[in-house]
Amino acid sequence: MKLSQLEIGETGIVKEFTDLEMSVKLMEMGCLPGEEVRISRIAPLGDPIAIHVSGYQLSLRRFEASTIILQ
C-alpha cells in the first residue's frame, strides 16, 4: 500500500521508496524505513497531505506520498 492511499487518522510503517531521487529528500525529512507515519490532514482538493512522522508534521504532495510504500 502507498502512503497516498491512506485516509485521515490511518497509520502505516514506511517500508521502502519507489523513486530514488525522492527517497533521499524524504529520508532527510525523517521518513525513514521503519518509522510510523499518520495522516493528519488532507487538503480539500486532495493535495497536499499533512502527515505526522518522527515527532513533527510534514506536508507532502500526493505524488511524493505515492512514492512511499508502507508495510
UniProtKB/TrEMBL annotation:
Species whose genome carries this gene: Mucilaginibacter pineti
SMART domains with a match to the protein in the record: FeoA
Residue ranges of every copy of the Ferrous iron transporter FeoA-like domain listed in the record: 1-71
Any coiled-coil regions, as ranges: none
Keywords: Iron
InterPro entries with a match to the protein in the record: Fe-transptr_FeoA-like, FeoA, FeoA_core_dom, Transcriptional_repressor_C
Pfam families: FeoA
Official protein name in the record: Ferrous iron transport protein A
PANTHER family, A to Z: FE(2+) TRANSPORT PROTEIN A
GO MF entries: transition metal ion binding
